[in-house]
Specification:
CATH topology of one domain: Serine Threonine Protein Phosphatase 5, Tetratricopeptide repeat
Distance between the termini: 211 Å
Number of helices: 9
Order of helices and strands: HHHHHHHHH
CATH superfamily of one domain: Tetratricopeptide repeat domain
Strand content: under 5%
CATH class of one domain: Mainly Alpha
Number of strands: 0
Structural class: mainly alpha
CATH architecture of one domain: Alpha Horseshoe
Helix content: over 70%
Radius of gyration: 64 Å
């Protein structure tokens, strides 16, 4: 029994030892489990932080990349837009130049036809049409040579019209057809209001007008002729004719001065003695009127006839 008791005690002691070992093992296992739990928890926390950092880094990378692409796109888009605008402007300018060149070509062809027609008028001697059509040349596109040719043509046309009017007027004047002379001389003066030939035409026109009963205009034409030095062109009786026209307008004192000036300037002229005589008649008539006015006041002195 003692042996059994001893065995039981040994068994009990062994069981207790094993129980203690198991408890220690359980404690160690628990500690290991807790440590593993803490490690896992720390690892999970670290993973979450790493994942968060990775996510933030991804977001930042995406934002930066997107911003870079946006800036690049905007710059490229602006450059492309500018290039497009320049291309459109160049195309518009090219179209405008093309239209201008086409219009210029059409205008040049029109001007060339009109210039050829005008030159034909000059060559054919159709001087009235040359003068009338010259103003239309201002609307044409002409070269400097064409312009010079047409200016010479116009000058020639005017000279020819002046000469034609002068010759026809003088011819009519010499056959005492003063009405025709007036018309022809006016036609010539329409193309040349100044110069030697114009002065000569005004001389003949003044006499023609005086012969037709228009002494006022005759005086004006003769005065213009003298002012233009018509006497230097060989017509030396212009002042005598002016004096005659002044007598018709009853400007007797001016007429006497014109007669006197003519006779003094051309003492050997065939009209010189007549001019002196007429000037004397006017002077004597004026003195007689003055005497009659002093002796017989009233309207009788004014009724005395003027010298003829």
């Amino acid at each position: 029994m003692d042996k059994i008791s001893n065995q039981i005690e040994e068994l009990k002691s062994s069981i207790e030892d094993r129980t203690d070992a198991i408890d220690k093992t359980l404690d160690a296992t628990s500690q290991v489990a807790r440590a593993m739990e803490e490690l896992v928890a720390r690892q999970r926390s670290k993973n979450r932080f790493q994942q968060l950092n990775s996510f933030v880094a991804y977001i930042l990378f995406t934002v930066l990349l997107g911003g870079g692409f946006t800036v690049l796109y905007k710059n490229r888009s602006a450059a492309l837009s500018h290039a497009r605008d320049q291309a459109l402007a160049s195309a518009k300018e090219a179209r405008t130049r093309a239209r201008d060149l086409q219009d210029a070509q059409v205008e040049r062809k029109r001007s060339a036809r009109a210039a050829a027609d005008y030159y034909a008028l000059i060559r054919e001697g159709r001087y009235n049409e040359v003068i009338a059509g010259y103003e239309e040349l201002a609307n044409l596109t002409l070269s400097e040579t064409e312009q010079a040719v047409f200016e010479d043509g116009l000058k020639l046309a005017r000279e020819q019209m002046v000469e034609a009017g002068y010759l026809a007027g003088v011819e009519a004047f010499r056959r005492n057809d003063f009405e025709a002379a007036t018309a022809e001389l006016r036609r010539g003066l329409a193309f040349a209001e100044a110069g030697e030939r114009a002065a000569q035409m005004r001389y003949y026109l003044g006499i023609s007008l005086a012969s037709q009963g228009s002494p006022e205009e005759a005086v004006d034409q003769l005065q213009q002729a003298i002012a233009a030095q018509v006497e230097q062109s060989g017509i030396d009786d212009a002042r005598f004719q002016l004096a005659n026209a002044l007598v018709q307008t009853n400007k007797l004192e001016e007429a006497r001065e014109a007669y006197t000036a003519f006779a003094n300037k051309h003492p050997n002229h065939r009209f010189a003695q007549m001019a002196w005589r007429k000037a004397g008649q006017i002077l004597r008539a004026a003195r007689e009127r003055e005497r009659m006015a002093r002796e017989t006041p009233g309207p009788r002195a004014a009724a005395l006839p003027a010298a003829q």
